[in-house]
Amino acid sequence: THVCSVCLLQCNNVRIPRNISWAISGTECELQKRNMTENGLGHRVLNMDTMNPNVKRVEYAVRGPIVQRAMQIEKELKEGVKKPFTEVIKANIGDAHAMGQKPITFLRQVVALCAYPDLLEDDKFPEDAKNRARRILQACGGGSIGAYSASPGIEIIRQDVAKYIEKRDGGIPSNPDNIYLSTGASDAIVTMLKLLTSGEGKNRTGVMISIPQYPLYSAALAELAAVQVSYYLDEDKCWSLDVGELRRAVKVAREHCNPRALCIINPGNPTGQVQSRQCIEDVIRFAAEEHLFLMADEVYQDNVYAEGCQFHSFKKVLFEMGPEYSSVVELASFHSTSKCFMGECGFRGGYMEVVNMDPEVKLQLTKLVSVRLCPPIPGQALLDLVVNPPQPDEPSYATFIKERTANLDILAEKAKMTEQVLNTVPGIHCNPVQGAMYTFPRLSLPEKAINAAKEKGQAPDMFYCMKLLEETGICLVPGSGFGQRDGTYHFRMTILPATEKLKVVLKKIREFHKRFTEEFS
Amino acid sequence: MGGSLNERNGTLCELQKPNMTENGFGHRERVLNVDTINPNVKRVEYAVRGPIVQRAMQIEKELKEGVKKPFTEVIKANIGDAHAMGQKPITFFRQVIALCVYPDLLEDDKFPEDAKNRARRILQACGGGSLGAYSASPGIEVIRQDVAKYIEKRDGGIPSNPDNIYLSTGASDAIVTMLKLLTSGEGKTRTGVMISIPQYPLYSAALAELAAVQVSYYLDEDKCWSLDVNELRRAVKAAREHCNPRALCIINPGNPTGQVQSRQCIEDVIRFAAEEHLFLMADEVYQDNVYTEGCQFHSFKKVLFEMGSEYSSVVELASFHSTSKCYMGECGFRGGYMEVINMDPEVKLQLTKLVSVRLCPSIPGQAMLDLVVNPPQPDEPSYATFIKERTANLHILSEKAKMTEQVLNTVPGIHCNPVQGAMYTFPRLTLPEKAINAAKEKEQAPDMFYCMKLLEETGICLVPGSGFGQRDGTYHFRMTILPGTEKLKIVLEKIGEFHKLFTEEFS
C-alpha cells in the first residue's frame, strides 16, 4: 500500500484513494493536494482534465463571452459605475418580449385560465378563451396542467398541430402520430441529431449545416461528437443556398465521415434569407440523390417581410414533387412558440413533424423522449393556441388579428429600416432582411484592427463587438460565432428593439463604425 | 441523379428501387433505421413509460371504443403523477402563476395581495416584465437567490450561494446534465457511475445514452431497503477492474423503494465518497415526503457541512430538487434546481456554457419553483390556506403509505417494507415456479408477465421490478400510493385477489 508523504498523520482516518491519486501526481495523495493548491481547493473528481471532452468543445456564441460581459456591465451600471451610456441594449438574441413586444392577449388569457381554473367562473374572460381552456384541461391528467402528459405531448394538441400543418400546406395530410411536442425547437433538434449519430472514424455521422449557422447546431454536434460538414451560403446572392456548394461539401466530407443529414434553416438564422420554392426543390432532390435525412428548421415561418418572398414548407414542396420523392425522403421539420408574431420564448413550446421515418426508429424516438417524461404543459398549451388561434366567428378573433398583424407589420418595418440604415454606413454591407429576426451585415475592418485583435488573441469581429459594447452598451454577436468565410467579418443583430430604440442603436453603430475605422487607419 | 448512388448498390440506383417493392414505398433503406440509429439510444430502457404503459394506453382506447373488459377504467399507478390521480393544486401557487401569465389580473381584487406581490416580483425579474422572455440560462437571478435562502433555512443556516444554483427543466434535466459532464475516458478509464439497485430508471437510461458504465450497488431489502457501505465498497472494488468509478448517485427518500436514509448512513456514504474520490449526486426530490415516525429527511448538504471542513471543503456534491413531488406534485411545470458544492470553478463555467445551448428552463416552471421555495409567510393573507392545503396533502399521503403497507402485507406471497417516504411501494412477490416458466416461454421477465396479466384482468397499471433492477431470482412491482384513498383501497384489494388467483392458477 502507498503512504502519502505529506498527510500520513492527518490521513490516518482516511483511506487513500487507490489507482487515481498516486498514479497521477508524485508522492502526495489527492486529499493533500487539495490543501496545497492556490485556491485552497484543487484536485477534484470533476475538473477540466477529467470532464467530458465533448462538452469542452461546445461553443454557443449567442450566450458567449460577449453576453457575459454585457451582464457584467449591467451590474456595474447598477452599482453606479460611470459609462458612456446608461443602459445595455441586448440585440444578441431573438427575444421579442424582452425587447418590449407585448404578448398576444388571447394566448395569455387561455393559459391563465388553465393555470387557475377558478377563473372559468369569471365573466371578464371571453367565451372562446374559456372553451379553449376547458378543452385543454380535459385533455390533461386529472384536469390539471400540473400532471405529466404522454411523452410525445398531449394527444389533442398533436391533432391540432397536424390540422394546422395540413391547412398551412394546402391540404397535404399530416398524421398526429408523426408529431412530437418538444421543449422549444432546440430540444427536438438535439433529439433528432442524437438519433442520427453513430459509427466511428470514417463511418461517423456527418451533418451538413450552413455557414453561417445558428450555433445550436454546431454545439449539439460537438456534444455528440458528430462531424460538422459545412456548406457556405452565398452572401453575394442574398445568402441563398446553391446546390453546387452542397455537392462540393458532401463530396469532400465523404472522404472522412459518413454524411447522413442535411440541416436547413428557413427563413434563415442569422442571415435572414427566405428560400425560394425552386431552391427547396433542388435541396430535396439533392437529399434524395445523396441519401440524406433532411432537417428543416422552420421556426421563423411567419416572419417573412420582403415583397416577392414567401414561406414554403419543406413538407409541402416535398409532397408536391410527387411520390418519387414524398415516399422516400426522410424529413423532420421544426417549429416553436418562441418566434413569429407571438415570441413566447419563455414557455419553451415547440414541435417536430417527422415524415417517412422508419416505424422502428419512431418507437426508439418515443422511448428516448419518454426518459424526460414530457415537455412543460404550459408550453404545450401555448403551442395549441398558436396552431389553433381564434376563428372568424369567435369573440377574440378581431383583437387577435389586430395584435398579430401589428407585431408582424412592425417587424417588417424594422427589417427594412435596419437594412437601409446599415447600408448608408461606409464599410458595412447589409443584405435585405427578407425574413426571420436578424441582420448579418458584412464589415470591412482595417488591417490595423485585425492585427490589434490578433494580438489580443481575439477574432477581429469579436474585438469589434467588444469595443462596441464597451463604448455604446450595444450587445451584438460576432460573426465568428456563427461561422463565415475566412477573411470576412460580420455581426448578428436582432431587429427586435422597439422602433425608436432601434433607430438609436443603428445610429450608434454607424457612428461607432466610423470612429473604429478612423482609429485603426 | 448523383453518380455516387450507382456505385453503392449494383445496377439500380436508389431512387429506382423503391418502386419495385411490395408496399409501394420501397424498402430503399432509410437513412435512419434501426441499424444506423445511435446504438446508445437503442440501449436506453425506461420502464416507467415502457411496454406495460403502452399497453395500458391501448386498453384505454379500446375501452373508449366500447370493447368489453372485466373492468371499466385503467388505473395508472405506474408513475408519481399526483394531479393525474386527483390531488388538487395548491391555490396560492396557481394564483401567482395565473397573475404572471396574464398580468391584467393584477387589477382584479379577487386575488390576495401576497399572491399579487409575488407575481409582481417575478415579473420584474423577467425580461420585458414577461414570462415569455428567455431568462439567463442558469435561471432567473432572484429565483436562484430564493432557492439559496430556502436551502439555508432547511439546513439550519448552512450558507448556500445563489451562484451554485442552476434551475432546470424538472430534476431529470439537471441529473442528465451532471452525468454528461462526468462522462469521459475510454475502455478501462471510462467513467463508472454507482447507482442503487433498485433504482429510478432515469439513471440507467441516461448512462446508456452517454455510454457511461453503470456500477450497481444493492439496497438491503431485509433491512428496509437501507444502504450498507460495505456493499458500496464491494461494488466499487469490482468496478475498478473494468472502469473508472467517478460518481455515486443516491436517491433519498428512495424511489422506487420508499426508504428514508438515516443521518448515520448519510455520513458513512459521504466518508466513503471522500475515500474513494467520488462525486456525489443526491436526488432529493422527495424531501418533504417522509411519513414514518422516527424518520426524518437529512439533506446531504447539511450532513456534509456538519462533518467539518475535512469533508465539506473537498467532497463534490450536486443535489437535486423539483416541483413535481412533495405536497405540490406540479409535474407538468417541469420545474427544478440543482445545487453544486465544491465544483471546480472552470467546470462551473463549462456547465454554464452547456446549459446555455438550451437557452433556459421553462419560465412558468421557474416561477412555480420560486413559490415552492418562497411560500406564503405567517403574516401573509394566503398563509392559512396554504398550510391547510399542504398539510392535508401530506397527511393523506402518509395515511395511504401506511394503508398500502398494511393491506399488501396481509396477502400471502407479497411482502412489503414500510413506505417510510417518497410515493411508492416496491413489494416483493413470491411467484410459483410454473408462472416463472410460463413467463420464460413468453420471453418476459416473470414480474412483467405478472404485471401484464394484472393489467389485462383488472386494469391496474404497475411497473415490474425488473424495470428498476432487483436481486436475481427476486420479483417486485412498483406501485404509487397516489390514487385517491377510496380508489387505493380498491386497487389494493384487487391486487390481493389477483395475487391469490395468480398463485392458484400456476400452482
From TrEMBL, chain A:
Origin superkingdom: Eukaryota
- List cofactor names only: pyridoxal 5'-phosphate
What pathway, per the record? Answer: Amino-acid degradation; L-alanine degradation via transaminase pathway; pyruvate from L-alanine: step 1/1
Q: What class of enzyme is it?
A: transferase
Q: Which residues form a coiled coil?
A: none
Catalytic activity from the UniProt record? L-alanine + 2-oxoglutarate = pyruvate + L-glutamate
Q: EC number(s) of the enzyme?
A: 2.6.1.2
How would you summarize the oligomeric state and partners of this protein? Homodimer.
What this chain does, per the entry, is described as: Catalyzes the reversible transamination between alanine and 2-oxoglutarate to form pyruvate and glutamate.
Similarity comment: Belongs to the class-I pyridoxal-phosphate-dependent aminotransferase family. Alanine aminotransferase subfamily.
Name this protein carries in UniProt: alanine transaminase
Q: What are the leading ranks of the lineage? A: Eukaryota, Metazoa, Chordata, Craniata, Vertebrata
TrEMBL record, chain B:
Q: What are the BP-aspect GO terms?
A: L-alanine catabolic process
Catalytically driven reaction(s): L-alanine + 2-oxoglutarate = pyruvate + L-glutamate
Provide the GO MF annotations for this entry: L-alanine:2-oxoglutarate aminotransferase activity; pyridoxal phosphate binding
EC numbers listed for it are 2.6.1.2
Cofactor(s), names only, from the UniProt record: pyridoxal 5'-phosphate
Q: Which UniProt keywords apply?
A: Aminotransferase, Pyridoxal phosphate, Transferase
Question: What is the protein's name according to its record?
Answer: alanine transaminase
The entry describes its oligomerization and partners as: Homodimer.
Q: Which InterPro entries match?
A: ALAT1/2-like, Aminotransferase_I/II_large, PyrdxlP-dep_Trfase, PyrdxlP-dep_Trfase_major, PyrdxlP-dep_Trfase_small
> Which family does the similarity line name?
Belongs to the class-I pyridoxal-phosphate-dependent aminotransferase family. Alanine aminotransferase subfamily.
**Transmembrane stretches, start-end:** none
Q: Does the keyword Transferase apply?
A: yes
Question: Can you supply one Gene Ontology CC term for this chain's record?
Answer: cytoplasm
* Superkingdom field: Eukaryota
Q: State whether keyword Transferase applies.
A: yes
Q: Which top-level enzyme class is recorded in the Swiss-Prot or TrEMBL entry? A: transferase
Q: Which CDD domains match?
A: AAT_like
**Ranges of residues in domain Aminotransferase class I/classII large:** 107-495
Pathway(s): Amino-acid degradation; L-alanine degradation via transaminase pathway; pyruvate from L-alanine: step 1/1
Signal sequence residues: none
Q: Which organism is it from?
A: Hucho hucho
